[in-house]
Design brief:
The protein is of the alpha/beta class. It has helices spanning 32-41, 58-67, 93-102, 123-134, 185-194, 202-208, 228-242; strands spanning 3-8, 26-27, 30-31, 46-53, 78-79, 82-88, 110-113, 139-145, 152-153, 165-167, 175-177, 181-184, 213-217. The site of cytidine-5'-monophosphate has 18 residues, from helix 3. InterPro entries: IspD (IPR001228), IspD/TarI (IPR034683), IspD/TarI_cytidylyltransf_bact (IPR050088), ISPD_synthase_CS (IPR018294), Nucleotide-diphossugar_trans (IPR029044).
Length: 243
């Protein structure tokens, strides 16, 4: 069954500081979103990429994708063997993903959801996620063990106030999850129809349906560009790749 990827790229990126929407900021001269699309198109499994653009930026994103089409000249709407579509996004990441799913043609039975903010994910991670879905898991997340110990706190009313610690989950059992997250299409669509509360990843919606979600090894280069220091790290990773 063919595999499509939905890339939510409609966020403002407030934590990164003032400027253009996060997905359109440059890394080594190329918009983060273009790196992310290339990273998924690098997988021989992925034949369609649906980019969910900022609501007022769909036309700009479409011309950006056309401008960065692979050398050799491919028709508009396609990068070699990978087609792409652009749709306008919504208020929340969840809504943006749902708008992307609404545009998914019927033949795609496996869907990846990948943050534009994870531009450097290696193709090996993409392939591992696809293979685990094809092996029968309804939902798959790439995940890494944590370096830091994690505490649950009672959040303070005002930023900077001390926060009482409530619990310390055993670190060895915790994982930080990344994207692309991979899904059986029907499971993901049902999750988006059923779960209404706000969540931070798609797999947790599938968990709420009672379906099994499995974790496969993630990769340190699949980190999310969120704060200014992450831009420094991303530039360093790209420089190392060019060596
Ligand atoms: O804000 P956060 O870093 O969790 O965003 C993760 C991804 O979701 C980013 O790629 C961002 O562009 C996307 N997003 C979106 N629509 C929103 C908010 C975030 O597509 N309304």
């Amino acid at each position: 069954t063919p595999v499509a990827a939905v890339i939510p790229a409609a966020g403002r990126g407030v934590r990164l500081g003032p400027g253009a929407p996060k997905a359109l900021r440059a890394l080594s001269g190329t918009p983060m979103l273009i790196h992310a699309v290339r990273a998924l198109a690098a997988s021989r499994h992925v034949s369609l990429v649906i980019v969910v653009a900022p609501p007022d930026g769909a036309a700009e994103v479409k011309s950006l994708l056309d401008a960065h089409a692979l050398p050799g000249g491919t028709p508009s709407g396609s990068w070699g063997r990978t087609d792409f579509l652009v749709v306008p996004g919504g208020e929340s990441r969840q809504e943006s993903v749902r708008l992307g799913l609404d545009a998914l043609p019927p033949q795609y039975g496996v869907v990846l959801v990948h943050d534009a903010a994870r531009p450097l994910v290696p193709v090996e991670t993409v392939d591992a996620v696809v293979e685990a879905v094809r092996d029968g898991a309804p939902a798959v997340v790439p995940a890494l063990p944590l370096a830091d110990t994690v505490k649950e706190v009672e959040p303070a009313a005002a930023a900077g106030d001390p926060e009482p610690v409530v619990a310390t989950p055993e670190r060895a059992r915790l994982r930080a999850v990344q994207t692309p997250q991979g899904f059986d299409r029907a499971a993901l669509v049902r999750a988006h129809e059923t779960v209404t509360e706000n969540v931070t990843d798609d797999a947790s919606m599938v968990e709420q349906l009672g379906l099994t979600v499995v974790a496969v090894p993630g990769h340190e280069e699949a980190f999310k560009v969120t704060r200014p220091l992450d831009l420094v790290l991303a530039e360093a990773v790209l420089a190392r790749r060019r060596l």
